[in-house]
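Morning run. Coffee first, then this:
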Amino acid sequence: MVVVLLGSLSAMTIAGPRVYFAMARDGAFFRSVAKIHPRFHTPWVATAAQAVWSALRVRTNTKDQLAEYTGFAVLFFSAFAVSVIFVLRRRHPDEPRPFKAWGYPVAPAIFVVVSLVITAAAIMGRPGPSRKGAFIILLGIPVYYLFYLFSKRRTAAAPTV
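And here it is:
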């Protein structure tokens, strides 16, 4: 369990802040989160936000709760990310393919189906932590739209040069 948590923490330490950074850069999150460190060229505010969030989660949950809380979400979003390959290949059939999807379409389809089955089993088997995780994920939808509307108003109010 510790190895799984450390692996997940390592991946989220690198990936999470870059998601916050991209959201901030696109106007879907606080602008300050898009700040880049002058020496290390990394999204330092986003990394600090990820560290605070992670510390809060570690402080308020057991290792089992953390694994259940995040595990289903990681699997669900992994399945979602891999399923995009089908959409992109259908919408853009003539685009160059810089990499090959091994076993396409069978291997990605199996991954998506198995991930969704495991996600559903996690939710049905231990609905409490999964429900909390799903709540936070779903809470992101109205928060995203609030940032979007605020960003749109800020852009409309900005003077044009």
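Helices lie at 2-25, 44-60, 63-91, 106-125, 127-157. Good start to the day.
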